[in-house]
Amino acid sequence: MARLGELERKVMELLWSSPGEPLTVREVAVELPHHAYTTVLTVLDRLARKGMVERTKDGRAHRYSATAPRDVYTAELMREALRGAPDSHAVLVKFAETVTASEAEVLRSALGGLLEPPTEKKPGSPKTAG
Hints:
The protein is mainly α. It folds into two domains: 6-66, Arc Repressor Mutant, subunit A (Orthogonal Bundle); 70-114. It has six helices and three strands. It has helices at residues 6-16, 25-31, 37-49, 70-84, 88-98, 101-115, and strands at 23-24, 53-58, 61-66. It is elongated and about 55 Å long. The two termini are 31 Å apart.
């Protein structure tokens, strides 16, 4: 997973904050007034090469959108950090000790859903859409 530089992160924040609405280079550059249009274009092209953004043609312009939402990117960064640790179990324990009660509940709920065995269908029961 690509680590982001400061300007790349700012650009991604703009794209993540407008899901479903790809932005032109000019629209991104307007939000980053201390950076030249060409600098913003270079950053967007670099992010496209990293697979972080998708570029689509819109008339004479190109529009850019994030290829994945912010939570997917953040979760992958967390997985990458965990994979790089010599003792991932110790890291998980330390992390668990730092979360708030509501964050712990979210984790419990997510893990519960992953750890529960699938329910078996009874003969003659209707099929579920899937």
